[in-house]
Amino acid sequence: MSNVKSLASCLFCKIVKGEIPCFKLLETDSILAFMDIGPVSRGHCLVIPKYHAEKLADLPDDQMADILPAVAKIAKAAGNDNYNILQNNGRPAHQHVDHVHFHYIPKPTADDTAGLCVGWPSQDLPMDEIKKAYEELKAKLE
Fold first, then answer.
1. What are the HIT domain coordinates in residue numbering (predicted)?
2. Model confidence over 4-32: pLDDT tens digits?
């Protein structure tokens, strides 16, 4: 699918353009924050860049400046002691809308009755495997 076609059919781009209504919380020149209409918990909202990029690595650096400050502002305003900030990239990672977006998800209770329920199945990797992964990634960052 071409980028022009995906841009034209993108749900979040339609929200940014005002073609689909939303419960707008914050807006700057580069981001829009609004309530998620399929919430995991009460107060679940999204912060999206107005620039269309499918994955975080596709988003130009100059389009990222307002994202985390907006999430932090929402978190402070909501006043929740416990919450998750989630950002998924690709279908296997549970991304359902092909437009970069960050979830603010309140976690009102310690049990799994509301909010994000996350398992963290850590792998028992030998230290030499961790070191090898580190060296590969570090070399690419330099």
1. 11-115
2. 556 678 999 999 999 999 999 999 999 99
Pairwise CA distance, residues 97 & 44, whole Å: 16
Dig out the tokens for 108 from the structure.
């009102």
Whether residue 127 is contained in a domain is answered as no
Would residue 138 count as lying in a domain? no
The phi, psi pair for 72, rounded to 5°, reads -65, -40
Domain that residue 60 falls in: 3-117
Among residues 44, 52, 99, 101, the one annotated as catalytic is 101
**44 catalytic, yes or no?**
no
* Closest to 79 in 3D by CA, of 47, 27, 54, 42: 42
Residue 22 to residue 17: CA distance in whole angstroms: 11
Strand pairing of 83-86 and 102-106?
antiparallel
